[in-house]
# Entry
Amino acid sequence: GDSVYENATALSAMAEAFEELSGIIKEHGLDFDLSLKPFCHACSYVSVLFGFLGFAFKFAEMEYTSKVRDLERASATYGTLNNILDFDVRNHSVKIQGSLSRNLRRVRQGLDLMRVLFKNFLSADNYSLREAASSAYQDVCAPYHTWGIRTAAFAGMHTLPTKEQLVINLHETAESTEKHMRRYIDASLPVIEYIDNLFNLRRIPLNW
Ligand code: 1PZ
# Structure
């Protein structure tokens, strides 16, 4: 209801948005022709979380948000994620910088970066936020980023707050943080797999 929404934190709202989206995908299966509108709506909640990570991630937020916005604007013309890929396959523009398919691939990497960061955050190894974020970035994004971006990103990791400070910034407790991060970890995976399947079906390798 409305009162629940008013009391929602950024983290719980993001978890809820992805539970809704993954619910649609689980209900209809990977063959479902997912619309850009609900997809971009959920993705916009992740922008907010990037913002909470502090100064350096502000650049990541702007970069990620502009790509989500491009996809959002394209929804009137293309309707669904499938149509975007079909268009770019026909035009040989799947991997061209700024193409909607490439932006979708990058947004997918942003969703996965957040998922792996949360996994590391909650890991029994008790990483600092900087270690959690650096390791997630190393695994998910660094292989596909230029040397300059990678160097700036790893330098920027030093400006991350502590775990305790992040929990405070998010208006959460340690317990509620864990709960909502786990919800996002579980709910984002089917969405990520759905996107990867769109590329796999068209025999487009995911090494970029
Ligand atoms: C002490 C020094 C502080 C300086 C802080 C500077 C931090 C810079 C962080 C750089 C993040 C910008 C990431 C930009 C990535 C883009 O190159 C790619 C490819 O875009 P394309 O070529 O297709 O247009 N964009 C993405 O991969 C979108 C996903 C964004 C997720 C990036 C997370 C990076 C987190 C690092 C933050 C420290």
